[in-house]
Structure formats: structure tokens, C-alpha cells
Write a structure and sequence with these properties.
mainly alpha, 3-stranded antiparallel sheet, Double Stranded RNA Binding Domain, 3 strands, 376 residues, 13 helices
Length: 376
């Protein structure tokens, strides 16, 4: 007897999220969606006795996390998003069957390069997602600035993977390509200012597989949609590890050592930025390598910045100053930059509270011991 061994079914990648259509489809099926914001966003999707919880950086992210649990397989997610994407087209066919509106003045013809997202409902939804993502990045840049560098890298990886997933789903839509390129450029500018370390996915030549876990036995993502899911998990894992290590919600271990709070943190920030200009030169230029005396002054600036973390009005300016110091560490070798590197480490616990070190009241100001690094 001959046995025919059927080839395994092809791997189906999840379709790009279309939040508006997905929400409408869920509500049409009797599900109710509720959100709660507590520093991050939590989502509850319920119907009768069903309860599905998700969490993320915003409503779309939290809903996507809940849907991952409701629809654990890639095939299920693909079928649902595809069905949701067809609903606008069906509605459009119904509208086309209705009597036409009275003739009006013909509007100017759109640029041919922009016609594709207007014709394809799924592309239109993906373009809207990318535009919302761009606005979200601008709206959350202050929150991003407060995070520890490893958390900044993880969050920027989520953002760029989400954008590239939309571009990968619609490779022939120029408007999506331009919008994604603008996001990549903006994130590159932020990374240059904050200097949290390299985010490889911002490079044009990077593939989804390059964003995955490089340890042996770990499956790497094949699409940008898969890479976004993996990046969200990595962000959650990093946050949980930091909390377990005693860090605060933003990934820093020194919350208790910033007390008493600085009486005039914004003035201290202005003074720190002025000192950095004097010691390192203009911010737009590569920092000059300091001598030993200047390095002591720079460490004092770093301690001041650690003390006023979270207390200033302009978190972006604070993080940009921290970024200048991180960049300096990357250009100065050991042992000259050892104390500065340890002072900037989010998991570093100083031998005395920061105000004592800044104001010169500490008994051992130069004894610094960084904790063992936690694998990201």
C-alpha cells in the first residue's frame, strides 16, 4: 500500500493589525473592550464568562496582546485580521449599489504614488496604523527619556518592528514606505540624542531574523510582524527582570538614594548642561577627551543628573545630557572612564545618597561598586 505523505502546510504569518476594523468585528461578535492606564495600558476583552487580558504601551498594543492570547496560532490571527480587512470592502460594495449622490465639482486627481493606499482598504488601515505610531512616538518621547537605556532600546525595537511589519505587508505602497522611513529616521535621531546603545533594526539592511535572540536553540522571527511580537515579549521580560532586581518602573535601581529631592532641579539641569558645554564642547560635535581634572568635574555632573532624575520638567533635555555622557564613555577607554561608566549605570547603587555625593557630604565619594549585570 502506497502512503502519500502530504507536505506540511505553509507557515502563515499573522497579518498586520488593523485596530479599527478588529475592534468593530469584536464588538459585532458580542465582545466588550475596556482599557485602564496605570503607567502602561491594560486591556480586558470580555463576552459572557470569557475574560481575556492584555497589556502594552497603548490601547492598540494592549489589545494586540489580548488577541495573541485569544488567538494563539498564527493561522487564527491571520484569518481574523483578513476577515476584518474585508469588511470595509464589503461595505464599499454596498455603498456602490446605492443611488449616486448629485454630481459635484470634480476634486483634483491624487498623485499616482498615493493612490494605492486609497484603493486598498487593508493598505489604508496599515497606513493609518503607521501614522498613529508616528504620533505616539512624538507623544511618548518624554516618557521614553525617563527609561533606563536597555528599556529605551527595547521600546524603540517594538516601534520600528511594528512600522516595518506594515511596510512588509504592502511593499508596493509608496506612502507607507515614506511613512516608515520617516519613523526610522526619527528614531535614529532620538537614539543619537539619548545614546542608549545600538538599535540594529533601524538599519535599512537588517532582516527580522537579526532582531531575534541569538542564543542557541532560540527560534528567530521570519517576518517583521513576528519580530514585533518577540520585541514586545522582550520588553516585558526586561521590565519584569528589572522589577525583580529591585529597580523602579523605569528600570533604575537608585530611587531611594535620590532623597531628599533637589530643591531646584531645573536650575541644576541648566547648570549641568552648561558645564557639559564647557567641558566637552558643543553638543553637535564629537566630545573632546577630558583630562583627569575635567573627568572629575564630569563625574560630578553625572551625579547631579542621577539626583534630579524624574524631578525636572524637561525629561528630554535631561536624557540628552545623559546621552552626551554615555557617548563620552564609548569614546574614552578604561580606566579613565570607569567611574563615569559606573555612575551612569542604571543598576548602580552609590555608596551614599546622591544629594550627599553632589553636595560633598559623603565620607567615601569615590568608592563605587556596580552590581552584577542582569542578562537582557
Amino acid at each position: 500500500m502506497t502512503v502519500n505523505h502530504a507536505a506540511p502546510p505553509p507557515r502563515v504569518s499573522p497579518a498586520p493589525a488593523i485596530p479599527d476594523e478588529l475592534r468593530a468585528l469584536l464588538q459585532e461578535c458580542g465582545y466588550r473592550i475596556a482599557f485602564r492606564v496605570t503607567g502602561w495600558t491594560e486591556c480586558l476583552v470580555g463576552r459572557g464568562s470569557e475574560r481575556w487580558f492584555g497589556h502594552g504601551l497603548d490601547e492598540d498594543d494592549a489589545l494586540a496582546n489580548a488577541l495573541d492570547k485569544m488567538l494563539p496560532s498564527a493561522l487564527a490571527r491571520h484569518m481574523m485580521t483578513s476577515h476584518a480587512a474585508r469588511r470595509p470592502a464589503a461595505a464599499a460594495r454596498e455603498r456602490d449599489a446605492e443611488p449616486p449622490e448629485p454630481a459635484q465639482a470634480t476634486p483634483p486627481a491624487p498623485d499616482a504614488r498615493d493612490e494605492a493606499p486609497l484603493i486598498d482598504p487593508q493598505a489604508r488601515g496599515s497606513l493609518a496604523l503607521v501614522e498613529r505610531l508616528s504620533a505616539q512616538i512624538e507623544g511618548q518621547i518624554g516618557d521614553l527619556a525617563r527609561l533606563a537605556p536597555v528599556r529605551q532600546r527595547a521600546l524603540m525595537l517594538v516601534w520600528i518592528c511594528r512600522a516595518r511589519a506594515a511596510e512588509q505587508a504592502h511593499p508596493a505602497v509608496p506612502s507607507i514606505q515614506r511613512a516608515v522611513a520617516q519613523i526610522a529616521q526619527r528614531l535614529g535621531e532620538i537614539a543619537t540624542s539619548f545614546w542608549p546603545g545600538s538599535v540594529h533594526a533601524l538599519r535599512l539592511s537588517v532582516t527580522p531574523a537579526a532582531t531575534g535572540d541569538k542564543r542557541a536553540g532560540k527560534q528567530r522571527p521570519h517576518t517583521w510582524a513576528d519580530a514585533e511580537i518577540a520585541a514586545r515579549r522582550k520588553l516585558d521580560d526586561e521590565r519584569n527582570r528589572a522589577l525583580a532586581a529591585g529597580c523602579d518602573e523605569e528600570g533604575w535601581a537608585d530611587a531611594a538614594l535620590r532623597k531628599p529631592a533637589a530643591p531646584a532641579p531645573d536650575e541644576l539641569l541648566d547648570r549641568a548642561r552648561t558645564d557639559l558645554e564647557r567641558l566637552l564642547g558643543p553638543a553637535a560635535e564629537k566630545p573632546t577627551e577630558p583630562d583627569a581634572r575635567q573627568m572629575n568635574e564630569i563625574v560630578a555632573v553625572a551625579r547631579t543628573l542621577r539626583w534630579i532624575r524624574g524631578s525636572v520638567r524637561d525629561h528630554v533635555a535631561w536624557c540628552t545630557a545623559m546621552g552626551r555622557l554615555r557617548r563620552l564613555v564609548s569614546t574614552c577607554g578604561e580606566p579613565k572612564a570607569r567611574l563615569l561608566r559606573e555612575t551612569l549605570d542604571p543598576r548602580h547603587l552609590p555608596p551614599a545618597p546622591w544629594p550627599s555625593l553632589v553636595q560633598g557630604r559623603a565620607t567615601q565619594p569615590n568608592v563605587v561598586r556596580a552590581p552584577e549585570p542582569v542578562q537582557a
